[in-house]
Amino acid sequence: MSQPTPEVYEQGKGMDAHNQVMREIRSRKEASYDPHEPTRVWLDEDNTPGGVKRSLTIILNTGGCRWARAGGCTMCGYVAESVDGGSVSHEALMDQIEVCLEHEADNGDEPADLIKIYTSGSFLDEREVGAETRRAIADTFADRDRIVVESLPDFVDREKIADFTQHGIDTDVAIGLETATDRVRHDCVNKYFDFADFEEACAEAAAADEDADDADAGIKAYLLMKPPFLTESEAVEDMISSIERCADVSGCHTVSMNPCNVQRYTMVDDLYFSDGYRPPWMWSIAHVLEETADVDAIVVSDPVGHGSDRGPHNCGECDDLVQKAIKDFDLRQDPSVFEQVSCECELTWETVMERERGFNQPLTR
Ligand code: SF4
Ligand SMILES: [Zn+2]
């Protein structure tokens, strides 16, 4: 089992107390994974600045996020899926890509236009995915329209993006910003960077976009709806202002709002078991999407685990209906989809929004 330890790069970043707790929680995991197999791969469809596209989503197994090994974000259990020893060779990573291509050939009619690569860390961090592997992956997908790779903002630079755009592939870097509010990102999520770092990464993407002749480059911001320690109404307010601030940054064309779910081996999980955390209401997600429908960016949300206790949920009766409206909104960006859904539990949600305070949360399960 790989022991979570802070490395020099991580020291002095984030909150020591949060990191200490998260290191202890993560050290409870006892699983190891094959470095020649991707963590997960699936086919789907997605809304991009170039329209709705069929997508192949790949979660590469790269050894996990270094920040997670230092302790890391309070809601993130991804390190539990990483490889023992903390690094994966070029050959093994290319084997993983091969497995994904086979999955695509077996399950899709033709190659997907959009490729999305997540690593449970940073694809652009050269300690996770070296330059040789990054370029080989760019070659492999040179015939596709668009690629999304995930990275922390520190590792985003125009040359790395150019490895993809030079093949004419539109390239987006997905950044787990979580919130535009530095205080919430630091104290509730325990993520170490600032909004200013996100703005710098957006500027790098904008520069890469300018340099590329026949491809676009941009940033997709991932936001976390309802980190721990916020009430329902604080979370909603924070999310609305975060979406507005992200949409205003040039280079950032898409915002993906991810409702927090309770993952194993996280601080959120410990809080949940002590009755200190409830994932967001589906009504909150619908409300935020309605309120931000006119911003200058695509805004989408994919409530993972919707309707379950550990995921975003309403009363149990209406969850599927609201989920369907959210998925509709993702593809069409039309807020009127929410006018057609209603349920008695909306009244409970409104009461929670009005009455829940830091000291009495969560008011409902
Ligand atoms: S959310 Fe991202 S940065 Fe934070 S611990 Fe997880 S993988 Fe690392
Ligand atoms: Zn309901």
Shape annotation: globular
Beta-strand content: 15-25%
What are the bound molecules? iron/sulfur cluster, zinc ion
Question: How many structural domains does the protein architecture include?
Answer: 1
Mean pLDDT, all residues: 91
- What is the gyration radius calculated from CA atoms? 20 Å
Biggest sheet record: 8 strands, mixed
SS-derived structural category: alpha/beta
Please list the strands of the largest sheet in the order they lie side by side: 1-2-3-4-5-6-7-8
Count of individual beta strands: 8
Per DSSP, the total helix count is: 12
**Helical residue percent band:** 25-40%
* Unreliable stretches: none
SSE string, helices as H and strands as E: HEEHHEHEHEHHEHEHHEHH
Distance between the termini: 35 Å
Structure characterization notes:
The chain has 365 residues and is α/β, with parallel strands linked by helices. 36% of the residues lie in helices and 16% in strands. It has helices at 16-26, 66-69, 90-107, 131-140, 158-165, 182-189, 195-211, 232-247, 267-273, 282-291, 319-332, 346-355; strands spanning 40-48, 51-59, 114-118, 146-150, 170-178, 217-225, 252-259, 298-301. It is globular and about 55 Å long. The model has no long low-confidence stretch (mean pLDDT 91). Bound molecules: iron/sulfur cluster and zinc ion (ZN). GO terms for molecular function: catalytic activity; iron-sulfur cluster binding. Residues 55-291 form the Elp3/MiaA/NifB-like radical SAM core domain. This is Elp3/MiaA/NifB-like radical SAM core domain-containing protein.
List keywords for this structure.
365 residues, alpha/beta, 8-stranded mixed beta sheet, binds iron/sulfur cluster, binds zinc ion
